[in-house]
Structures are given as C-alpha cells and as structure tokens.
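Fig. S4 source data, part A: sequence.
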Amino acid sequence: KAGSKASAEVRAKATQEAYSYLFPMIREMREQGRTFQAIADKLNTEGHTTRASKPWTPTAALRVWRLATCA
C-alpha cells in the first residue's frame, strides 16, 4: 500500500507541474461561475490538450481545478 500511495503522490505532482500554467485561468473561470463543460470547451478552443494529448473533458477540467485549489 505504501508503494501505491507514493506512486499516486508522484503522479499528482507531475500533473500539478504539467498544468500549473492553466491554474489561474481555470480558477478564474470557476469564480465567474462557468461549468466544467464550459472550461473544457474553452481550453479545447484555445488549443490546449491534456498530458495524453487528448481534448479536455469536463472531468479532466474538474480534476485539474481540484489540484489548482489545493496548490
């Protein structure tokens, strides 16, 4: 179990580093009351992709927002 926890922490840190430049934008959009669908749409329109080079989904936006609010 310790290995799983350590692995999760490493992944979370890598995700935080990969998306840290988007944190202010995502935080601001949420403060404006935008939905995660609207945030995903905006990120896709601006040409941003996930670390897996895929389009943003509302779930991905939610997960990154959670990291942004904990950072």
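Fig. S4 source data, part B ends here. The radius of gyration is 13 Å.
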